[in-house]
Amino acid sequence: MYKPILIKSPITIIFGGYLGSLMFMFIVTAVGNLEATLFGKNFQLKLPEIILSMAISLIAAGMVHRICFTTCLIFSLITIYYMNKLSQKTYVAAVPAAAPVKSRRHK
């Protein structure tokens, strides 16, 4: 719908790739929420869901312009890196340190 506007200049083409990466982020979030609702809170996204979401957003960005496809890929990889970093920081429980085991052998 906004293809003529997004391909007017190089900056708007890059912005089109950024919009594609936002779409990727929203699709990943929607799929993750759907799976959490259907399969329980402890269910995590796996690689196939990420690849499917990436493919959908890349196809949509590629329909606008070839460079939108490339910038969408780059921005989406950066987005998934920071989403994973934030998720690890938020949801990973701290593992208590193991206490040293004392042996009962006498020398």
TrEMBL record:
Answer whether the UniProt record assigns the keyword Oxidoreductase to this protein.
no
**Does this UniProt record's set of keywords contain Transmembrane?**
yes
Q: Which family does it belong to?
A: Belongs to the KRTCAP2 family.
Keyword tags: Membrane, Transmembrane, Transmembrane helix
Q: Which Pfam families match?
A: Keratin_assoc (PF09775)
- Topology in the membrane? Multi-pass membrane protein
Q: Cross-referenced InterPro entries, in alphabetical order?
A: KRTCAP2
PANTHER family per the record?
Answer: KERATINOCYTE-ASSOCIATED PROTEIN 2
> Which cellular component, as a GO term, is one annotated location?
membrane
Q: Tell me the compartments it is located in.
A: Membrane
Q: Which organism is it from?
A: Parnassius mnemosyne (clouded apollo)
Sequence intervals crossing the membrane: 12-31, 51-82
**What is the protein name for this chain?**
Dolichyl-diphosphooligosaccharide--protein glycosyltransferase subunit KCP2
